[in-house]
Design brief:
Elements lengths: L1 H12 L13 E5 L4 H12 L3 E6 L2 H14 L4 E6 L5 H14 L5 E4 L17 H22 L4 E6 L22 H22 L5 E7 L13 H14 L3 H4 L1 H8 L9 E4 L2 E2 L1
């Protein structure tokens, strides 16, 4: 109930995070930074002086996003690297490139996601939403963890959703072979994000690396692209009336990435730039 109350508060207040914090000499990786909330996050962090690495599956789209950031932040230090979270080999290649080129990773934002897609599997056989939204980010984070620890103070931010409250992880049927429902699968993956954030916080206690789980609130993004024509039309109609822009949806992610007062907090869940 607390999650729903804060989500409603976030919807009504539409908070925009205000901070003059600079991120000079900081490196941030944003998965899915080529569109929506990720792109707005990339723009904000670049404007604060951070080196921003957009990690995305569609490199050409990533380059377009990077150019759009540069138009608003002419001196932006922003690069694009290929990352397919549905493939362990792609994740490992990405990490190899980062470890060779980046001496520090101060901020990792696991933002990329997929929702309500038709039943399908990742290269390694995971149900697609669980595989991309959780497992891919789980592997990415753990492969980068030593570099992140060497960059303290550092932060790891996992973008989840209020949908996690409807989630239930079926450990005996982790790939949902016995019955696939695209919405349930999404909720399942978002709950995994929350649990991962909490457990990672416990394991990183005392290291100088802190973790945060974010609910962006209802936001107009490409996340619903797999909905059917009628459902998509209905969602599009209501999103114009009720949903936040991607910029406003990115505010809590930005808050968790840069707010100095959060340095002693870890493993918690945030919505509307506040703890739930």
């Amino acid at each position: 109930m607390a999650v729903f109350c804060v989500s409603l508060q976030d919807f009504l207040l539409r908070k925009e995070f205000q901070s003059g914090t600079k991120l000079f000499n900081k490196t941030a990786i944003i998965t899915g930074g080529n569109t929506g909330i990720g792109k707005e996050t990339a723009l904000d962090l670049a404007s604060r002086g951070a080196k921003v690495i957009i990690a995305c599956r569609d490199v050409e789209k990533g380059k377009v996003a990077a150019e759009e950031v540069r138009k608003q932040v002419p001196n932006a230090n922003i690069i694009v690297r290929h990352l397919n979270l549905a493939s362990f080999s792609s994740i490992r290649r990405f990490v190899e490139e980062i470890l060779m080129s980046e001496p520090y990773v101060h901020i990792l934002i696991n933002n990329a996601g997929i929702a309500a897609c038709p039943k399908s599997k990742t290269v390694e056989g995971f149900e697609m939403q669980f595989g991309v939204n959780h497992v891919g980010h789980f592997l990415l984070t753990n492969l980068l963890l030593e570099r992140i620890k060497a960059s303290v103070p550092a932060r790891i931010i996992n973008v989840s959703s209020v949908a996690h409250t409807f989630g239930k992880i079926h450990f005996s049927d982790i790939h949902l072979e016995r019955g696939y429902n695209s919405v349930s699968a999404y909720c399942h993956s978002k709950l995994a994000n929350v649990l991962f954030t909490r457990e990672l916080s416990k394991r990183l206690k005392g290291t100088g690396v802190t973790t945060y789980c974010v609910d962006p609130g209802p936001t107009r993004t490409e996340l619903g692209r797999y909905l059917g024509v009628i459902s998509g039309y209905i969602l599009s109609f209501y999103s114009r009336l009720l949903y936040k822009s991607a910029k406003k949806g990115a505010q809590t992610t930005i808050y968790c990435a840069v707010e100095e007062s959060l340095s002693e907090e870890s493993g918690l869940y945030y919505c509307g730039c506040s703890i739930v």
